[in-house]
Structure formats: C-alpha cells, structure tokens
Design goal:
Strand 6, helix 4 and strand 7 form a beta-alpha-beta unit. Among the domains are: 94 residues, Beta Barrel (OB fold (Dihydrolipoamide Acetyltransferase, E2P)), CATH 2.40.50; 156 residues, Rossmann fold (3-Layer(aba) Sandwich); 32 residues, no CATH class. The chain has 14 helices and 13 strands. With 473 residues, it is an alpha/beta fold. It starts with 19 loop residues before the first helix and ends in a 24-residue tail after the last strand. The protein is 45% helix and 18% strand. It has a five-stranded mixed β-barrel with strand order 1-2-3-5-4. A five-stranded parallel sheet has the order 7-6-8-9-10, with helices on both faces. It has a three-stranded antiparallel sheet with strand order 11-12-13, with no helix packed on it. Helix 4 packs parallel to helix 8 and helix 5 packs parallel to helix 6.
C-alpha cells in the first residue's frame, strides 16, 4: 500500500507578510545603496519650483523618470532648467514612501552638447535682449573730458596698472578712484554689483570703468552674471566695460554704454591725449579767428554800401513824417477819451430811468408773495394727504394680520400635514390608518399616528357651550 500511494510532499511555508511601510523602507534602502551615484541622459519634460526645491521629469522615446533637486543644489546650477532642454542629470535613485514613487534625487545637471556656463550665457543674453537692455538707443555718450573717473577692478591685477599708466601718459592730473573687488571666484559678482551701486550713490563721477584682464569662461563668469548686468543698466554714470581680451564678449560688454577690447583700450577711449587735445583746440581757434575776420570784413562792406544807398538818405524825412502822424493821432485819441465818460454816463442814466419806469418791476414783490403763499398751501395739502394714506395703510395691515394663517392658529385652530409633505390635509378620507401626520399649532407641532378615520359627516358645533371636552354619548 505504501508503494502505491506515497505520502504527499509538504507544501512550502508562505513568505512572511510585509507591511507597506516595511516593504517601501527595504526597497528604498536597496535603491539608495545600489544606485547611489548614477548619471541619466534625457530631455526635461516638466520643471516646477515649489518650496525652493525643483521637481522635474526626464523623458526619452521609451519612458519618463520623475526627479527632485533640493534648493541648496539648485542654487549651484549656473543655467536655467527649462522644458525641452536635453541634460545629463547626476544623482541617486530613491523611493518616496508617502506615494510609493520611484524617483531620481539629483544634485547636478550638465547640458548635452554645450558647456553649462556657455548655456547660462546664451540664456541670460536672450532674456536681457528681450527686455531691451542692449538697445543702441539707451547707450549714453562718454564725456569728452571727464575729470573724475571711477574704476571697479582688482587692485592687484595687471588691468589697473595698465589703466593708471596709460591715463598718466595721456592726460595727467585726472582724479581716479579705485573700488577694489574680487574679479573671479564665488561672491565676486555680488561685490562688483555692490561696487557699481555704491559709486552711483556718491554722484561725483563722470565715467565708470569695469575692468578685468583675460581669462577662461569660468574666470569671466562674474561679468556674465545677471546682478552685474542690471547694476550697469541702472547706473546713472556713463559706463565702459573693459573685460577680457579683444575676442572675449561678456554680458557686461553688451549692457555697458561703451565696450573696450581691453583695459588698456578703455584708458585710451575714456580721455583724449592732452597734446592732441591742445592741437585740436589751437586748430579750432585759428579756424574761428579766420571765420570771424572774414565775417567782419563782409559786414563792414555791407554797412558801407548801405550808408550810400538812396533809401538810407531819405530815412530822416520819413522819420519826421511818421513822428508828425503819431502826434496827430495821439491828440485825437486824447480828445475822444476825454468825451467818452460823459457820453457813457448819459446813456447809463437814460437806461436807469427806463428800468424804473417799467411796469412789471413794480409787480415783482407781489408775485413773490403769491409764490410763497402757494408753496406753503401746497406743503400743507401734501402733509394732510400723506397722513390719510398712512392711516389707510395702518388699517390694511391690521386687517391682514387678523386674516393671516398665524392669527387663525392663535385662536385655537390647527393644520394637519402628512409626514414629509407640505400640503395641508383637507379630508379625513385622505389619511390611512397607521400613517404618520404632523399637526401644526400656534406654538409648535405635534407628530401623531392616525388610528382610525371616518367618513365625512356633519360635525356640529366645533366647541360646546360650557367648554366641555367629553365625547357625546
């Protein structure tokens, strides 16, 4: 028997059941330990900033990955994360337990095909250009001969030495103020922006130069910063940007009123050579003297020709004739003005006599009195009519209150309703035994159950004399 019917193999024990929190915790730990540092390439499909943190999706043709970057890491991204931008995101895989959502916790982004700083430069350039900060119309001319020059640069670099040397050689005696700042590294952009604002508050400078020597794109990053660009745009002092070498183009160069290829070129552009300026002034003086001398010779010749002209010789006679005509006109005007007051006084007196003799003038007082009496009579009639209307309205209100449903209930009557209905019951035949009804009294309601109903008969008087409440035998 045992060979024909072998004993069954015992079934495997079921796995230990996990709670949801336990399962998500173990999966999250496995992801964070096995995928703690990965890079993912994809296109940003959505990017939102909530609470200072960035929430995004990376997508390609085959799928979509959710991700988050914390605010402290987001501030270090030099370019703007926008939908449609293809990037390489670096971070760790994670599982967000409250929603059981698989996501990438990123801490760095690199654009695909272009450097991060170059992309940040292109994005900022496009945004500021759309705002009109590069327009030629807003560029101001640099003063021809500035007396006070401010320079924002590092006091230890070669740029300031070149500027001071060239200024001293071209035009000695100029007042140059150096505002020392860092021109590279973290925090340097904020220092440059604060320096530009501080020099503007002093309101004593004729021109402001922002200078730095050449360097890589990372070294020139402070001069591609939005804070520096907006500080230059808001400057009330005409500005010159002298950043990098001739081939370097920065945001500062595009915003400033004048771009110099190098710091040395800025010193040559800000002021003309003193000897060249003296030669120009001397040349202007000689040309002005020659022009004035020629103009005086022409004016003398013209005056001499006029002195011999026939019209000028007859001028004394014409002047005497005009003087006589003015004297005659003056006498006639004085005579007319002397007789004018008497004539006007006579006309005024005649008009006054005609006005006082006018018949309607005498009746004005009487008509005014009639008008006042009529107004008083009208007011009295209106007050009496208004009082009668108030009395009629008061009487109608009292009648309405007497015939109102609440007044009827106050006299001992009641209204019955079927439970759940608002229509009053008018016949006992409409109520079935056992049906719930509501009885509305003057004060409150009674809920009841119909025990029996009867056919309508002559009920007789509603109340018997003496106020008895016994049922008839």
């Amino acid at each position: 028997m045992s060979r024909m019917y072998p004993s069954p193999v015992p079934a495997a024990a079921p796995p230990r059941p996990y709670t949801v929190s336990e399962l998500l915790s173990e999966v999250g730990q496995a992801l964070r330990s096995s995928w703690r540092d990965i890079s993912v390439t994809g296109e940003i499909g959505r990017f939102d900033v909530r609470g200072g943190h960035g929430y995004f999706t990376l997508r390609d043709r085959g799928g979509t990955l959710n991700g988050v970057i914390f605010g402290s890491d987001l501030k270090r991204i030099p370019f703007a994360l926008e939908p449609g931008l293809e990037v390489v995101a670096r971070g760790a895989l994670d599982l967000w337990a409250p929603q059981g959502r698989f996501q990438l916790r990123a801490y760095r982004f690199d654009p695909v095909g272009v450097g991060a700083l170059q992309l940040a430069f292109e994005q900022l350039k496009a945004r500021l250009e759309a705002e009109g900060l590069f327009r030629r119309e807003r560029k101001r001319p640099i003063p021809l001969l500035p007396q006070r020059i401010a320079v924002v640069t590092s006091p230890e670099g070669a740029a300031i030495r070149d500027i001071l040397s060239i200024l001293a050689r071209r035009f000695d005696g100029l007042a140059v103020t150096i505002y020392p700042v860092r021109v590279q590294g973290e925090g340097s952009a904020a220092e440059v922006a604060l320096a530009i604002a501080a020099l503007n508050r002093r309101e004593v400078f004729d021109v402001l130069i922002v200078a730095r020597g050449g360097g890589s794109l990372e070294d020139l990053a402070p001069f591609n910063d939005e804070r520096v660009a907006r500080a230059l745009a808001a400057s009330r002092i005409p500005t010159i940007s002298a950043v990098g070498h001739e081939t370097d183009i920065t945001i500062c160069d595009l915003v400033a009123d004048l771009r110099a290829a190098t710091p040395s070129a800025a010193a040559e552009l800000v002021v003309e050579r003193k000897d060249a300026l003296r030669r120009r002034i001397a040349d202007f003086r000689r040309r002005s003297e020659r022009a004035l001398s020629s103009r005086l010779d022409l004016s003398r010749a013209h005056l001499k020709a006029l002195s011999r002209a026939e019209g000028l010789l007859r001028f004394p006679y014409r002047l005497r004739f005009s003087r006589e005509r003015v004297g005659q006109s003056r006498g006639a005007l004085i005579s007319a003005l002397a007789h004018r007051p008497a004539a006007e006084a006579s006309r005024l007196s005649a008009a006054w006599r005609a006005l006082t003799a006018f018949s309607r003038t005498a009746g004005l007082d009487r008509r005014l009195q009639q008008l006042r009496s009529g107004r008083q009579l009208l007011e009295e009639r209106m007050l009496r009519r208004l009082e009668r209307q108030r009395e009629r309205l008061r009487a109608c209100a009292e009648k309405l209150e007497l015939v109102g449903p609440l007044s009827v209930l106050a006299r001992g009557y009641a209204v019955a309703y079927r439970e759940g209905s608002r229509a009053p019951l008018l016949s006992a035949a409409a109520v079935r035994p056992g049906e719930r009804i509501r009885i509305r009294l003057h004060e409150g309601e009674i809920r009841a159950v119909a025990r029996e109903t009867s056919a309508p008969v002559d009920p007789g008087p509603l109340f018997t004399s003496g106020g008895s409440t016994e049922e008839p035998q």
